# Entry
Amino acid sequence: MRDKNVLHLVHDISSNRSYECDLRSSSGASGILPLELTDVGYEVAGQWLLSDINLKIEEDRSTIILGPNGAGKTLLLRICHGLLAPSRGSVRWQNPSMAHSASAQAMVFQRPVMLKRSVRKNIEYAMKVCGIDPASRPHQLAAALEVSGLEKHADQRATHLSGGEQQRLALARCVAINPMVLFLDEPTAHLDPTATRQIESMIASLRDSGTEIIMVTHDLGQARRLADRVVFMHDGKVLISAEAGEFFNNPKSPEAAAFLQGNLLW
Amino acid sequence: MSTFSSSFSTAVDLVLTANPELAEIVFLSLRVSVSAVLIATLVGMPLGALLAIRRFPGRATIATVLSSLMGLPPVVLGLIVYLLLSRAGPLGEYGLLFTPTAMVMAQTLLVLPIIAALTRQILADLHQHYDEQFRSFRLSGWKGIQTLLWEGRFSLLTALLAGFGRASAEVGAVMIVGGNINHVTRVMTTTIAMETSKGDFSLALALGIILILLVLSVNVLVSLIQAMENEA
# Structure
């Protein structure tokens, strides 16, 4: 069981300072990980967009799926999260019944999807449908608003927020749910450096509170800042799955080496 | 011109003094149209939601038929309902022809495709927007539909008012199945048609004023709802 109500050092993105916050703690995703993909393939109209994916995602705190556009990163993420079923192969969690419960996993999309309600109500809705204990919801809501720096926007309509604020709200929902595994699909793709820094700070806070991060990006700098492990993809295949340091210092495929050097891959 | 001004003056007088005959016609019109819209909503909204969200064989055909029925000529619909309710028809034994119930049936069938098709369009757009997020939340079908209905409540209310506008302004079908019987099935639109053909414009104009005010009110209500949605 995961511990609750433990003080954690988090980074307040509104004031750019660190402080102790009553954010729920997690003893990690050990209950549901590893996630094992065996011979996974995904076909659309006779074309295999993913093929021969054999991958084991263990408890590494932060796994970054890296690769050029069209490599199949987003498809792989959606298959892992269960939004798409693979055309062949299998996706297995260690504890499937726990893994498929509403609060075990969450996903942040490239373009955040908000209900036409206030910031507060968006977070409350997520907690309700994910089965968070009603007694702990006010506390979780306060923590989510605090960590995301959205307290002063709590009663503002979510769809009226800026792109960066909406993405922070999407992450705030995840803070409130406190999933064991959080999938992120290029959450900073459309954001400026300031908003990107704020989002990365929130992701790091979630990771530090014990949530397993599995994130897609093609931003090398971001991968270097956040990755504990890197899965490198190209042309619908996983070419490398390695520790971040090992991947960046000694990439074991010519495609990965070229990508790290900033050469164009297609 | 003098005929028009005197008729208009009498019409305004009828409205301002709440003439009993006028009030009876207006009340029956509203009763028939509101009943028809309520029944069409109860059937049309779930049907539209089903077509928007569920995948099943024949779904596209039903959606196309519904969209086509939005433009169904009221007189043709009136004729079909007449044949169904006439003594020789399959529902003849119930004796519903030339009753307000027959008029409600005709208007319901007229409004149902409008409400169902608009609901389908509104919810299909919302469903496309929220589908992945809801599946990420592991939301079950019914909970997802509930949320979509709430998120689309302002647009759905607009669809409902569009149905009411169509029903209240309709004349052909209710004339055929209602028969325009005095104190029984005489409604605003059929009275206007009858009084105009008789050359007695006062009552026709009075009813016309009320009908225009009603349609204007509906449009103002739609604008207010849209403004509320933008501010909510």
